[in-house]
Amino acid sequence: xxxxxxxxxxxxxxRQGDYLIxxxxxxxxxxxxxxxxxxxxLDYLKQYRKVTYTNLLTSGKLNxxxxxxxxxxxxxxxxxxxxxxxxxxxxxxxxEENALEWLGRMNNIRACAREIVNEEIIYT
Length: 124
Prior knowledge:
Strands 1-2 form a two-stranded antiparallel ribbon. It has helices at about 5-10, 35-50, 50-60, 60-90, 90-95, 100-120; strands spanning about 15, 20. It is rod-shaped and about 85 Å long. Helix content is about 70%, strand content about 5%. Pfam families: TnpV.
């Protein structure tokens, strides 16, 4: 019997009852930690960008891609918070004098920065 193209390229089949099923494997990749931002982007890819998700997964580049997105998003988030703190004049002195006002303003800044990072990096 003539070899199929799959067999010529080094693939092999496994018999399952009356059927020959190709033995497919995903290339291994180095495991890197993925934080909250990377997990959010992963959920977005699975739900709205299925082709991109499948391509990254089957090429073995998904973990590295998500780790990079997570790093970019975290750095952008921290830069935004620092910039907004300076623009609004939020200092450690305010924290000492009126902790509740400082907390409320910081929560507002974090929420704004989170929305910006989601819009610019996570959901694109």
